[in-house]
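Memo to structure team: turn this sequence into structure tokens by end of day. - J.P.
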Amino acid sequence: MISIPRNDTSVFGRWWWTVDRWMLAVILLLAAIGLILTATASPPVAERIGADSMYFLRKQIVILLPAIAILISVSMLDLRQVRRLAAFMLVGSVIFMIATLLVGTEIKGATRWVSLAGFSLQPSEFAKPAFAVLAGWFLAARRTGEAVPGYAITALIYLTLISLLLLQPDFGQALLLTAIAAVQLFLNGLPMALVIALVVCGVLALVAAYYGFSHVASRIDRFLDPKSGDSYQVDRATDAFQAGGLFGRGPGEGIVKNNLPDSHADFIFAVAGEEFGLFVCLLIVGLFVFVVLRAFTRVFQEKDLFVLLAGSGLIVQFGLQAIINMASTMSIIPTKGMTLPFISYGGSSLIALALAMGMLLALTRRRPGIASWRN
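Reply from structure team:
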């Protein structure tokens, strides 16, 4: 049990008494659950590629330790440092997203990864939290009367990232980025007529994606009519949930991981359902709900508009990504290759999420005495 006096004025002491320790604890719990599920889901995947059974678990541990250090370190930053970090992340993300189009590795028909010092990096994972923070910064500056073209700069960043995402192509990440922007614009007081116009544009964009991207059309068609194409992974995931029942087959006793190539990544929730059952799945869902609601409660109590907008964007990214992963695994929505935050195996995703949630914890730290933006 950590015992730190409230009058401790050290950097760690000030951080400990101002950070949301409950949110931090639940995030770390999600990461611990992720390790357990990786340990049980990944051995068959490792053996299929000729590696030893603990290959993916070791890699996840090696990535998780610095990810936790990043999470805690970033949560200690002040607001100015958070903005600077986001700016650095955005510049780096754009440079590497361009690099993926030129020298990136094509996987499953998409060019989203670039090799860096032997590490496979997905730059778009870092672009999402960077956009959320910077968009919140520029929109807040415009709203509070600063001579900053907030809407124009936000639109420029958004269009740049969307263009790079669609060139990869990665329609799912583009949709997630659009959701972040829409929520921030709504909270910033965008007129309802423009909100409706943006919704209409979003629907038209979805229709255009259906007719313009064959993989999007294929996934939607298979969702509406499973017999129209290969629905093998979704069918096996559905079988896993049914076999798991309320309490599951037991740790290590599942069979879906023997048949799913992405059982340790995009479909790890199906492994949880089969081996640990409905109640553990509901526990995982409850942990995500806790983080989202807790974070929204904190940001809506804030008096700084930047914190409200940037924090809301980061929450939308985290919560919507979790919803998309779990819903697609359960065949509630068309499948989308998106990781389950802090639970799925994946280096880029884990580090990017550590940065995102570290920034969210930094934004929601208690800062008494700051004037209200509403005044």
